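Researcher: Batch entry, complex prediction.
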Amino acid sequence: MCRWAAYRGIPIPLEQIVSAPGHSLIDQSHCASQAKTATNGDGFGIAWYGDHAEPGLYRDILPAWSDCNLRSLARQIRSPLFLAHVRASTGGATSRDNCHPFAHGRWSFMHNGQVAGFDRIRRKLESALSDRHYACRRGTTDSELMFLLALEFGLDEEPEGALAEMIRFVLTTAEAEGLATLVRFTAALSDGERLYAIRYSTDSHAPTLYSAPMYGGNGHCLVSEPFEDTAAKWQEIPAGSFVTVTDGGLSVRAFEPVSPEPVRLSEPA
Amino acid sequence: MCRWAAYRGIPIPLEQIVSAPGHSLIDQSHCASQAKTATNGDGFGIAWYGDHAEPGLYRDILPAWSDCNLRSLARQIRSPLFLAHVRASTGGATSRDNCHPFAHGRWSFMHNGQVAGFDRIRRKLESALSDRHYACRRGTTDSELMFLLALEFGLDEEPEGALAEMIRFVLTTAEAEGLATLVRFTAALSDGERLYAIRYSTDSHAPTLYSAPMYGGNGHCLVSEPFEDTAAKWQEIPAGSFVTVTDGGLSVRAFEPVSPEPVRLSEPA
Amino acid sequence: MCRWAAYRGIPIPLEQIVSAPGHSLIDQSHCASQAKTATNGDGFGIAWYGDHAEPGLYRDILPAWSDCNLRSLARQIRSPLFLAHVRASTGGATSRDNCHPFAHGRWSFMHNGQVAGFDRIRRKLESALSDRHYACRRGTTDSELMFLLALEFGLDEEPEGALAEMIRFVLTTAEAEGLATLVRFTAALSDGERLYAIRYSTDSHAPTLYSAPMYGGNGHCLVSEPFEDTAAKWQEIPAGSFVTVTDGGLSVRAFEPVSPEPVRLSEPA
Amino acid sequence: MCRWAAYRGIPIPLEQIVSAPGHSLIDQSHCASQAKTATNGDGFGIAWYGDHAEPGLYRDILPAWSDCNLRSLARQIRSPLFLAHVRASTGGATSRDNCHPFAHGRWSFMHNGQVAGFDRIRRKLESALSDRHYACRRGTTDSELMFLLALEFGLDEEPEGALAEMIRFVLTTAEAEGLATLVRFTAALSDGERLYAIRYSTDSHAPTLYSAPMYGGNGHCLVSEPFEDTAAKWQEIPAGSFVTVTDGGLSVRAFEPVSPEPVRLSEPA
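Model: Structure tokens for the complex:
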């Protein structure tokens, strides 16, 4: 279970979300004394938008809480749109290439969740990538691969549709292998203009997602779990949601990549 | 609160203590789901004795659980005498030089505990080092400094006396500064022949220390906390103890660097 | 241009080959003042055989010369059979997974050379791997992939034949893509019993390979370039050679994966 | 011999000085094929001024050329005033705390040079620090210590005088120990407003320093060695110079911390 936070609004120093003591992502990542929470010490990353179309990217394999560089960068860098992630590996190496966010052109992407039986369908999923996106594969995570598949399926043109198709493809592939069809997927992504997020699961355990307005409504923050010691009014986003944050504010609509009942993916479509 | 394990006995692969799944130091260090335990993700280290008088040393700043090198080394290296440590920093940088064990000549040393007000007496303590030992100071931890002070005070000749004098010196220095005189000190050290350990505190909260015979009594293991899923018969070492492990087995005697009552360190000795 | 050294013979501390000052791999890797030599600062690795069938593996992304762990390990670890490598990346990330040697089961492998147009045939080469070996792909280098292909083609049963088939397959794949068919390949590998090496190129620039007897003929060292300040009697291995080192000594025979003239790989086999 | 570059002028992306291909600090640091140049692969750092009085700081122990984070940061961060450094250790550990630039409050500092016999006077120099600055000592380099001594001697009030006094103090201390009195010191530093640099040596081998106007005179760059493939008109700064860059441009005046002849530092002043 990783944790992440994303922000879109008036430009703010990243530290206000990433590293401020008492109510930030880093602070949250280390509270190992809470019985229900895992430690997120397997690397971290930030992606932020500035003067360029493509995001800046800073990722490393240390625990976020012990990286003095991250603290300084989060204090100095101001941005109107950024993603931040702390990783708890459930398998797979701790390497920079496996750290979120992932970036491709103007897109950035990060994720919390899982694909049941990923190791057994990884190769089939990779074979669906065009040469162009296959060449961009750097690490071994399911998250990076789902991001590349979404790009393959038209993220640039229609984000919601591309993500839905990606999830359907993962499920169909798993089913074709005779595996359980379980995808839990709570993700944030951006093209540098809009901030998108999804909370979805094929079962009833979609990883949590919360939103809160900030700075008098001039900004919005999305998080996998609310920060604890903060005045922000966190609202839970229901499972099966697609979130869009623009200048006009935050909107949520239903996200149903597959018909919820009855799921019979092996039937002819 | 760091955690450590030390072994002396018939040569065994380090992995049996360091990284075996279910009952090893690494496994123990990551169990963040236990409400009472802190994560030990701020670096790790091993010191082991082989063909040379001085120990081998391998330390790094990653969490121990994500270091594939450590796993391979622990599997390949056999040793009759070794120390292993996972660090939970309570302040201070995560750097290799701040990772335990520390080594000097044939000695190795690691520690779990604290010195109240260390930042305010650090300089005075460092000034007590001879040029020779001052030049060996690499990091900024209290632990490394206490090791160098013990060397200064005759660790080579009389380990127990040197450690007692070191603790007295720390307390006297703190008192002279008008600080609380609190030292908690649970440590293991070796000269390549014997394995020593101390459990001590000026208050009633000496960090825990346990021992267990292994391999039919042909080895002894000392740990800051018992491994959980293991058949070893762990015995708690009482606070105020000095432990020695030799070919003849494990012996414990009282360790009282200062008279327990009343503490009046500023009086002429 | 990476550099490497391999040893088989009476057990010696790795440092005698890896890190001894004045005539070792590390020393050699840093001599940037020599006009003709590149710096090999993009990671390093050692694989050695001890008590287990599979080798120990220690790799990191620092320059070898600044890694104090490597120095201590090379001093402590004795082995009758080991490989050591310092990397000069010609592209691709500096990550542990891209550092040589690579290990798989009892095999270890390291390489100096290149495949022309690798990026354009990488996917085709990967698709020739069975699921079992595909799942073992960790990094993005041509070297790791050539090792996995050799395993695929029967390295376990017939090393020379498997390596020859791998090289033919790479060439055939490149030709099918209309690319230049250039492979330069100077590599060392071991199954824990024998030490093998190849010096080969499709053109006249096969990366160099030298051998020297050591310890009165009780050991043999293979290196990509001779150490400079040493009494060892280095002998150049000619291009197009397959080297085998066993208890019986070192033997060299011709290695010709493709008929040298005329190369007409596109003809039906 | 480290290398560094510093810039003050209209805000520019750091990459134009730090990482642009063909004529930047990173590119320069890796040209090991040049017979006369050392490799600078022992860590790197950047310090830059933005919205805050104190600089941002990003340092790491990898070679600069292989750090993808540095490339992204240098592309995204714009600043009117920054320092960048690639390190070639002449001894001492490769750790973040030993990487330049060093920062303290609003000051940043980096250095290329040496102090003869530093190991033998390090302790005496450290003992001249007040408790406040002593507590800020993180690493073990001569460079960091000279920076702290300059702060001790009034860098905040009178930079040139404080640096001169620092150099005199180092020389006096060396002489008192009966050591050769050799200081080579080419450094850049800033308080966030002005950019300062010094080129100085007690002998005739002051490490080089060059300056060039940029962006039509709206910026100035100072470098330890000129970039090679660039249109900038580099001018050598003579040994014994103190350089100041302000909005008004670049000015150079003589810097003579000690009377050049005859040096009789042990005489009463």
